[in-house]
Amino acid sequence: MKQTISNNTVLAHVQDVRALTDSTVVIRFDRNNLNFEPGQYVSVGIEGMRENREYSIYSSPDKDYMEILVKDITGGVLSPHLCTVVPGDILRVAGPFGYFTISKDSLNKRFLFIATGTGISPFHSLVSAHPAMAYHICHGVSYDSEQYDRSIYGERYTGCISRESGGDYHGRVTECIKGQTIAPDTLCYLCGNCDMIYDVFDILIGKGVHPDNLHAEVYF
Question: How many domains does the chain have?
């Protein structure tokens, strides 16, 4: 039974925790009939702790559970605790929130998704919900192991690895984008750190992409 503790906050039991790296996990928990669109986020905390943080939803809306992608940030207030939850633990979940979504009448267009680190999370939700859409993902990470769930994207994924060899491109995702030919009518969605977003905005504008076709979600 859904337990509601405020107008838009529910208690959700952890169902599963899947480790992707030594410091990054996918946490699956009760959805509690929360309706959301791919690209939205929720505010998550651990019952018994005061802190909440915002996480993009990693799973697609056709599942009866919800997932988030969490990286243990050294010195973080909440992420080290989230990375150690186990099935049966209780989370506080509020939302969903946000407008980093795709309208149904745009699904037949071409998309370029650009992410750094765990900023790939909303794109995982989007392509899981709409696998037939025409998209390509450029994902900037430091290490090969951070190409989270790469296999589901197949050839529509370019991994840009900056601190070791491997992936499809050695270097930062911004440098990779500079070398690409991008049609001006491509819908470009950016999610990650603000420096990447500012740089890629300028690169895409310089390539002729209209500002109305640029959408961004900043991860701090």
Answer: 2
